[in-house]
Amino acid sequence: MKNQSSRRRFLKLTVGGIVGLTVGNKLLVKPAQAADLPHLSVDDAQAKALKYVNESSFSDKNCNNCMLIEGDASAEWRPCKIFPGKLVNGKGWCSAYAPKPA
Ligand code: SF4
C-alpha cells in the first residue's frame, strides 16, 4: 500500500514538474533578440581564424550579400550562421563568404 502511495506521489511530482518547466519556460525565458547580441570583435579567436573584418576590402563581396547572414536586412549589425551568438557588420567579410544565389 505504501509503495502505491509513493508511486502516485512520484508520478504527480514528475508530471507537475514537466508541466511547470514547460509553462515556466514559456513565461519566464525571453528569447534573445538579435539586437541584444554582442558585436563580433576582430580579435575573437574564430574571427581571426576566418580573417573577419568589419569592412570588406572587396567591392562586391560583403556580409550583406553572403548567404550565411541572417536577420533584418536593414540592420547594420546582423546574426551570421558562422558566428552564433554574435552580430557581424553588414559591410564586413570573412573567408567563409558564400555569395547569395542569384
Ligand atoms: S560567413 Fe563571413 S562573410 Fe558571410 S555573413 Fe558571416 S561573417 Fe560575413
TrEMBL record:
Residue ranges of every copy of the High potential iron-sulfur proteins family profile domain listed in the record: 34-102
GO biological process entries: aerobic electron transport chain
Presence of the UniProt keyword Nuclease in the record: no
Record SUPFAM superfamilies: HIPIP (high potential iron protein) (SSF57652)
A Pfam family recorded for this sequence: HIPIP
A GO molecular-function descriptor: metal ion binding
Residues in the signal sequence: none
Keywords for this protein: 4Fe-4S, Electron transport, Iron, Iron-sulfur, Metal-binding, Transport
Entry-linked InterPro entries: High_potential_FeS_prot, HIPIP_sf, TAT_signal
Coiled-coil region(s): none
Superkingdom of source: Bacteria
Function: Specific class of high-redox-potential 4Fe-4S ferredoxins. Functions in anaerobic electron transport in most purple and in some other photosynthetic bacteria and in at least one genus (Paracoccus) of halophilic, denitrifying bacteria.
Subunit structure: Homodimer.
UniProt record similarity statement: Belongs to the high-potential iron-sulfur protein (HiPIP) family.
UniProt-recorded name of the protein: High-potential iron-sulfur protein
